[in-house]
């Protein structure tokens, strides 16, 4: 058993007969009254996000997890297939478990949290940045650069990312996976 002082981002806990992953948390100590922890929890089975507040010192049941590297192989409808990077076992995960499946490129290595009790996958952590090639974007108009103007660009995975006007088709860009935003153009 853990307490609210052990809450951190990525912690998996058992709550309301389900397993939840802590997405966000904030320790609050008001001037009047007892301290508490405000959390945002994501169900690893349904993908539903809930807000919950725990009073300070509240006991929570944490779930022991292991993190393993898995390489993304291919999609099949709403199912994504991965291969363990060490023992080459394959697993299939539903699209709802992934945070940003539209940024996942074949061959990309992700971290999968596995429940140590039954070996079932709980969640997938994407790398912080991915490098993708722009397959389609409108050409930028010269003179439209007075402000930080952006335009939509379609990536090789089908994701649409807003990019600066100087990005052209065929360019490779770095995309932040958490927000799905452009970071920089990548030179080869």
Automatic annotation (TrEMBL):
Pathway given in the UniProt record: Protein biosynthesis; polypeptide chain elongation
Predominant location: cytoplasm
MF terms in GO: translation elongation factor activity
Alphabetic keyword roster: Cytoplasm, Elongation factor, Protein biosynthesis
Pfam family, one: EFP_N
PROSITE patterns: EFP
Localization terms from the record: Cytoplasm
GO CC annotations, alphabetized: cytosol
InterPro entries attached to this UniProt entry: Elong-fact-P_C (IPR015365), NA-bd_OB-fold (IPR012340), Rib_uL2_dom2 (IPR014722), Transl_elong_fac_P/YeiP (IPR020599), Transl_elong_KOW-like (IPR013185), Transl_elong_P/YeiP_cen (IPR001059), Transl_elong_P/YeiP_CS (IPR013852), Transl_elongation_fac_P (IPR011768)
GO biological process terms held by the UniProt record: peptide biosynthetic process
Ranges of residues in domain Translation elongation factor P/YeiP central: 67-122
Family according to the record: Belongs to the elongation factor P family.
Biological function: Involved in peptide bond synthesis. Stimulates efficient translation and peptide-bond synthesis on native or reconstituted 70S ribosomes in vitro. Probably functions indirectly by altering the affinity of the ribosome for aminoacyl-tRNA, thus increasing their reactivity as acceptors for peptidyl transferase.
Protein name per Swiss-Prot or TrEMBL: Elongation factor P
Organism: Sinomicrobium weinanense
Gene it is expressed from: efp
């Amino acid at each position: 058993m853990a307490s609210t002082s052990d809450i951190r981002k990525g912690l998996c806990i058992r709550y309301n007969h389900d397993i939840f992953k802590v997405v966000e948390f904030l320790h609050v100590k008001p001037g009047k009254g007892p301290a508490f922890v405000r959390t945002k929890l994501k169900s690893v089975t349904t993908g539903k996000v809930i807000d919950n507040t725990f009073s300070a010192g509240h006991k929570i049941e944490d779930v022991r997890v292991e993190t393993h590297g898995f390489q993304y192989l291919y999609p099949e409808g709403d199912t994504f297939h991965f291969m363990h990077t060490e023992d080459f076992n394959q697993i299939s995960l539903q699209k709802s478990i992934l945070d940003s499946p539209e940024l996942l490129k074949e061959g990309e290595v992700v971290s999968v949290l596995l429940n140590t009790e039954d070996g079932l996958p709980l969640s997938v952590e994407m790398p912080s940045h991915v490098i993708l090639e722009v397959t389609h974007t409108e050409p930028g108009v010269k003179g439209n650069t007075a402000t930080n103007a952006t335009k939509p660009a379609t990536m090789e995975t089908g994701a649409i990312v807003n990019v600066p006007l100087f990005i052209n088709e065929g360019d490779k860009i770095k995309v932040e996976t958490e927000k799905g935003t452009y970071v920089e153009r990548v030179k080869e």
